[in-house]
Design brief:
Number of strands: 11
Catalytic activity: 1-(5-phospho-beta-D-ribosyl)-ATP + diphosphate = 5-phospho-alpha-D-ribose 1-diphosphate + ATP
Family: Belongs to the ATP phosphoribosyltransferase family. Long subfamily.
Structural class: alpha/beta
CATH architecture of the largest domain: 3-Layer(aba) Sandwich
Strand order of the largest sheet: 2-3-1-4-11-5
CATH superfamily of the largest domain: Periplasmic binding protein-like II
Keywords: Amino-acid biosynthesis, ATP-binding, Cytoplasm, Glycosyltransferase, Histidine biosynthesis, Magnesium, Metal-binding, Nucleotide-binding, Transferase
Bound molecules: phosphoribosyl ATP, zinc ion
Order of helices and strands: EHEEHEHEEEHEHEHEEH
Helix content: 25-40%
Largest sheet: 6 strands, mixed
Cofactor: Mg(2+)
CATH topology of the largest domain: D-Maltodextrin-Binding Protein, domain 2
Pathway: Amino-acid biosynthesis; L-histidine biosynthesis; L-histidine from 5-phospho-alpha-D-ribose 1-diphosphate: step 1/9
Strand content: 25-35%
Mean pLDDT: 96
Number of domains: 2
Length: about 230
Amino acid sequence: APTGRDRLRIAIQKNGRLSEPARALLGSCGLSWRESPDKLFCYGDNAPVDLLLVRDDDIPGLIDSGLCDLGIVGRNVLVEQSSERDESGTPANFRELRALGFGGCRLSLAVPNDWDWQGAAQLQGKRIATSYPALTRAWLREQGVAADVVVLNGSVEIAPRLGQADVVCDLVSSGATLVANQLKPVCDLLQSEAVLAGPVAELDPQLAETAQMLLRRIDGVLRIRD
Ligand code: PRT
Ligand code: ZN
């Protein structure tokens, strides 16, 4: 759909783990912005590429609606929101274009240390605390297991100790948070990292040309980093 814009708009996380590396990557592509990083909108100085600084969870929706053309977001967020859309039967107009090599983590199922883990069948009838309900339900369906998904938007790892859930499904990087909560990872549902996301549909020709230019530069930067 025509946006009526002639400047490419990229959504990145305002405050969080991906904010600095996302800006650094775009900076390495030779882009710079007039506004300071604490502003919500950064006007591109030397190319028709502007930034919108938002909550990471809003990035897929901004692309879906065409308010932004590209975004940098964790694959975990992108896959969760497309799983949600699959559940509701309305396909998403966003997809992963490139893996960016930072923000690495995994979405793991973790159980209390004293469990003797035999496999997914053990989860039958259990309660799983997670911030990724659609991804977790999709995985449970694949495994043919019926379990209750308890949605928590923070402090997921404490749920078993509080008696809110039996096990958790959460992001893990070093594993220290699981250890501190007497949990152990037994199965990975998703390998995640920051990704460049874009629409499934074609961009307007002028925006598409700018996006192609940016993708070529990103590919160049990623090659050098490897
Ligand atoms: O405010 P906003 O909504 O934008 O930010 P947010 O709080 O939702 O996200 P943020 O900044 O915490 O994370 C952004 C993205 O970074 C995530 O979506 C992931 O793609 C990626 N990432 C990489 C991580 C981690 N590593 C990570 N370890 N996100 C979260 N964690 C958390 C995890 O949830 C757990 O609580 O860190 C804890 C575990 O860490 P370890 O090292 O103890 O295993
Ligand atoms: Zn978030």
